[in-house]
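Appendix B, Record 12. Input sequence as logged:
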Amino acid sequence: MRLSTQICLWMGGLFLLAAPGFSEEILPNGIALPAVWPPDRGAPSRAPMELPYLEHPPAVIPIDVGRQLFIDDFLIDRTTLTRHLYAATYYAENPVLRPDKPWEEEGVSGGHPSPTAMVFSDGVWYDPQDKLFKMWYMGGYTKYTCYATSTDGIHWEKPVLDVVPGTNIVHNVVRDSGTVWLDLQEKNAARRYKMFLFERVGPHGVLSVYFSGDGIHWGERVAQSGPLGDRSTVLFNPFRDVWVYGIRDYEPSSIGRFRRYWEHKDVLEAARWEKGQPKFWVGADTLDMPRSDLKTPCELYNLDAAAYESVMIGLFSIWRGQPQDRAKPNELCIGFSRDGFHWQRPTHDPFIPVSEHYGDWNWANIQSAGGCCLVVGDQLYFYVSGRGGVPGSTSSGVSATGLATLRRDGFASMDAGENTGELVTRPVQFSGKYLFVNVRAVQGELRAAVLDQNGAPIPPFTLENCEAVSGDSTAARLEWKGAPDVSSLAGKTVRFQFALRNSELYSFWVSASETGASGGYVAAGGPKFTGPKDQ
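Logged structural output:
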C-alpha cells in the first residue's frame, strides 16, 4: 500500500498518514518504511540490529495477512504470560537424502573424497501443480545441481532425466551455493522456476540467473549479478513484491563474513548492480557467543529467508570458527523480520544445531535450504544439510540432507501455569469473521474477549461468554454465547484479550472462512496449499 505524505487514506475506519521522514510505503502490518530505504546502517558492525518497528509500532495494527505470531512484543500491549522459545527437532531417521549415485561421488574436499547430496541453499518446495515435494541439491562436491522428488517429504526418489542422460542432474555448471525459487505468482509459465547459481568469474564470483518451466530443463543464462562472494543467496519478499540479494562480503579486521542488501521488483534488474552500491545489512553480533573450544568471534556464513504467515523468517548460518581437525561446526539460528530488513533474533541459541559426535551425519556445517520451511499438516519441515567430516581434517567428508521439524507457528509461545494469566493486544483491525488460535491446553483452558480501544469489553464478546478451548490444536476456533462470529467488529479498532491457564498460546488470527485459512504466506508451501498463501 502506498500513501502520499500529503494525503490520508481511509482504511476500514482508520486514517493512515505517512509521517515526515517516512516513505510512501506502508506494509500490510501497518509499518511505515523510512524515507531512506534500504536503511543506511553505516560501516559493518557487530552491534545488534535496532528494531524501529518495535520501538515505534503502528498506532493500529492491521492483522488480515496471516497468523499473528508472538515472536516479539509487536502485538502485545500488556501481559502476565511468559514467552517460551523453541528449537526444531531432528527427524529420527536422518538423513533423508544420501549420496548414492556415481556422479554424487565426484569431487574432493580437504584432500579427501566427499560424496555429496546436500542442499546448499538450493531449494525444497511443494509444487501444487504436480502434487510433489521437489528438492534441488548439490550433487558431487561443488559439481552439479541435481533434482529429487517425494510424495511425503520423507522418502525421496532421484528420477532418471534427459539433461545429462541417465542421471538426475539438471544443471552441470561447476558451482558453489545456489538458490532455486518456485515462483507461484509468476504469470509466464516458462519462468515459473528461478535459479540463482554461484559461478566463479575472475577473483570473485557472480550469481547467474536461469529460468525453467518445469525445474528440470533450464534455459540459457538470462542475467548475471554484480560481484559477490560465494554462499550469496536470493529471496523473494512478497509483502513488498521485491527480489532481495543477500550478498556475502568480508571484512577481516572487524566483522568477518557478513551480508549486504540489494533489492528490486524486477527479477532481472535485481541482479544488476555495481560494486559498492549494496549497503551493509546484517552479520553476526555481540550476542553470538564463541565456542568454548575455539574462542573465535562468530561470523554470519549465510542467511536464507522466506515469508511465513505474517512475518519473514530467517535461518542464520553462524560460523563459530575453523578447527584444524574438523570441518566447520556451523549451525543454524532463527531470526524474524516484520519489515524485511531489520532482524530480531530473540535467542542466539541454535535453532538447528550441529552434532558434537563424530560418526553422525551432521557432525559439521549445518546449512539451510532455500524456501526455509514447508507446512506439512500441523508441522513445519526444515530441510538442512550436514557433513560427516573426516577426523583430523577440515574435509567435509560425506555430505547429506536431513530434516528437522517444528510445530506449526511453534517458534514461540506465551505460557500460563496454574494461575490464570492474560495477554492484551495493541489496537488491531481485521476484515474476517472467525477468531482462531494455535494453543496447547491439554490440562488447561483458554478464553478470549474483544475489547474496545480503551480496554472495555464489547458485549457479547466477553471472557464470561466465551466457550473455553482445551486440548491441543494448531487451529482452534473461538466462539461466544449469543454471537456466531466476530464479523460485526470487522473494520473497527479493537483489542483482543486472551486468558489462559496451564496453556501455551502460539498465535491468533481472524479468518474469513470457517476452515481457518489465515491468508498468510506458507514459505515453501505444502500439500494443503495451491498457491503462496493459506487460502
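The longest helix spans residues 52-55.
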